[in-house]
Amino acid sequence: MDNKKRLAYAIIQFLHDQLRHGGLSSDAQESLEVAIQCLETAFGVTVEDSDLALPQTLPEIFEAAATGKEMPQDLRSPARTPPSEEDSAEAERLKTEGNEQMKVENFEAAVHFYGKAIELNPANAVYFCNRAAAYSKLGNYAGAVQDCERAICIDPAYSKAYGRMGLALSSLNKHVEAVAYYKKALELDPDNETYKSNLKIAELKLREAPSPTGGVGSFDIAGLLNNPGFMSMASNLMNNPQIQQLMSGMISGGNNPLGTPGTSPSQNDLASLIQALPSRCSSRTQS
After folding, report:
1. Where would I find the SGTA homodimerisation domain in this sequence (predicted)?
2. Using one digit for the tens of pLDDT, what is the confidence trace for 113-135?
3. Cα-Cα end-to-end distance for the chain
4. Do 59 and 18 meet the contact criterion of CB atoms below 8 Å apart?
5. Sign (positive/negative) of CA torsion 40, 41, 42, 43?
6. How many other C-beta atoms lie within 10 A of the C-beta of residue 228?
7. Domain containing 197 — which CATH number?
8. pTM, whole model, 2 decimals?
9. Whole-angstrom distance, CA of residue 202 vs CA of residue 78
10. Backbone angles phi, psi at 157, to 5 degrees
11. What range defines the domain where residue 203 resides?
12. Which tens digit of pLDDT belongs to each residue from 246-287?
């Protein structure tokens, strides 16, 4: 059994106990809940995974270490039960069958075979990484992310797991995270052209993402105001006296943000109008 998962489970179990009996404030409880979710996602374990439990709880282990008590041998070095030769061979056969199903684009069957291989040998990072690829083909990118996390936990030097994590994150439009994983994949396999290409694509998508100062909804106001075509169209439209009258009636306080009829509106005028319209339209709809 993976020692990292045992440790993560022990921490999660301790945090759950604190939630139930720690007498914490609501803010502290919320923080612990977030911490538990992060640990569960990072290590692929939950509090229900009782097979990961140690003979002693985390506070008991800490107390033993603090007082210098001798810990049981199975606690210092938890015994792993490697798969038998027969199970290992069968797991490899199932993985190969999963690979064949991937070739003919039968991705659901591939997920099934990889899952069976994992049941026989859950310490093999390749099985999780291959299932992640099948999940991605099915559009289950969250499942792919989770399997990549498990593969990386088992083998932190497995470049393919980082590369496939990058693909899944890109599909979830998490381009910042995807770039980081592609860079890690290239650190481990610097000559991989696929990782280089995918990194360039993710960086391009990151640059093309809407500006965070875009303003209302999903509109990139800064981009619109710097677009000459849009400014020309807006200027012609807003110099129309009827539009001036309509817009001035929508803005409270009797102040017309569009300037004097016959003059070209400034960028600040346009920004004020764009930002004011949604709230004004909403208030009129509700009245």
Report:
1. 3-63
2. 999 999 999 999 999 999 999 99
3. 63
4. no
5. positive
6. 7
7. 1.25.40.10
8. 0.50
9. 41
10. -105, 15
11. 85-208
12. 556 544 444 444 444 444 444 455 555 444 444 444 444 444
